[in-house]
Design goal:
Layout lengths: L11 H15 L3 H16 L10 H10 L9 E6 L2 E5 L5 H19 L1 E9 L7 H8 L2 E7 L21 E5 L7 E5 L6 H10 L8 E3 L4 E2 L8 E3 L5 H14 L24 E9 L6 H16 L15 H13 L5 H14 L5
Parallel strand pairs: 2-3
Antiparallel strand pairs: 1-2, 3-10, 4-5, 4-10, 5-6, 7-8, 7-9
Helix pairs in contact: 1-2, 1-3, 4-5
Length: 353
């Protein structure tokens, strides 16, 4: 049943077509608009609603303000047998990282491992998008990124010098769904805060605190505080390391150099990302590895549970389930988001969703 805060479900194809029209009318070439729209709709399909259609107004605003290069020359700037660094030329992050993943997979096929870093990129949606493709080709993938706004101070500090800096890992299984970990180094990704605000919901205690250290529950007041790291000081340390691997190593923005794309629509963000791909065939027979992982998954899922726990989940299982459910029944969108998208459609002169 559709809740009051949600519209009628929308099919993947309908959502993808709408997003593509919006991006093309904003200035992206048709082919690029289609590629980005497919990844954005896929984000909503798997339940990553903080990174899908909700981002269209922001992307359009940056494109029309000149903050994104609509015809980038995405190219390799340095390369060796098992690594490369690419320059995204301030293009849409989805395009930059799609090319980075393809190159990392090519290198992994030849060398067993491929590491590709990117600079001068942009926000690219949920991290899991870029580990799923290698998984489909019997490869393990790891993805690191510097977030597009600082929402995290160093542990014990009050100045926001780090971001949510996400990490994703994808591991192929056999008959079981692949293991796909996608997590921010903060308790919640900032996209989830934006999604809560769009649905008119409060945040759980533990996501954010204000500058006096008190819980901050209203997502519309998010600018008054900052996100908390996972595991306290350990999450802060992990955010730093991810930022070094995705940002500093690639010559991309980190620390005070990070541009807050929520408020600045014209300055290039110089976003940094990295992807590491391992070819299973270089380590073992893929079918043997995947059978072993299936066995481990079932051991974990069927292990003894605490009282009141109905099921033990593996990373990525719930998003895998949403993909199947939403593909059949349609993708639920918040009513507030549909209203915003309708206003944007009128502004762009395109058919509304």
């Amino acid at each position: 049943m559709t809740s009051r805060s949600e519209s009628n479900p929308v099919s993947f194809d309908r959502l993808q077509a709408f997003l593509s029209r919006g991006l093309e009318h904003a200035g992206l070439p048709a082919e690029d608009a289609g590629r980005v729209a497919t990844l954005m709709a896929t984000a909503d399909l798997q339940g990553s609603d903080g990174h899908g259609a909700i981002r269209l107004p922001q992307y359009v605003k940056r494109i029309r303000a000149g903050g994104i290069n609509t015809r980038p020359d995405i190219h390799v700037v340095t390369e060796r047998a098992a690594m490369a660094v690419i320059d995204g030329d301030n293009g849409m992050g989805h395009l930059v990282m799609s090319q980075a993943v393809d190159l990392a997979m090519e290198k992994a096929r030849n060398a067993g491992i491929g590491w590709v870093g990117a600079r001068n990129s942009n926000h690219a949606g949920p991290a899991s998008l870029y580990v799923r493709k290698p998984v489909e080709h019997d490869m393990i993938a790891l993805y690191f990124a510097v977030g597009n706004a600082n929402h995290l101070p160093p542990w014990g500090g009050a100045e926001m010098l780090l971001s949510t800096n996400p990490i994703a890992v994808g591991v192929p299984a056999g008959d079981e769904p692949p293991v796909v970990l996608d997590m921010a180094t903060t308790v919640a990704a900032y996209g989830k805060v934006k999604a809560k605000a769009k649905r008119g919901e409060q945040m759980p205690e533990g996501w954010m605190i204000d500058r006096q250290g008190q819980p901050l529950l209203d997502p519309k007041r998010a600018d008054e505080g900052f996100l908390l790291p996972i595991g306290n000081h350990k999450g802060y340390g992990l955010a730093l390391i991810v930022g070094l691997l995705a940002g500093t190593l690639n010559g991309a923005a980190m620390g005070r150099d990070v541009v807050d794309f929520n408020h600045d629509h014209t300055t290039p963000t110089n976003t940094g990302q990295s992807v590491l791909v391992l070819d299973l065939a270089a380590f073992a027979e893929p079918s043997v590895f995947k059978a072993a992982l299936d066995h481990l998954i079932r051991d974990l899922r069927n292990s003894e549970r605490l009282p009141g726990v109905e099921r033990i989940w593996l990373p990525g299982e719930q998003s895998f389930g949403k993909r199947r459910e939403y593909a059949e029944r349609g993708i639920p969108l918040a009513a507030g988001l549909v209203k915003d998208l309708a206003a944007l459609a009128e502004e762009l002169g395109i058919e509304p969703l």
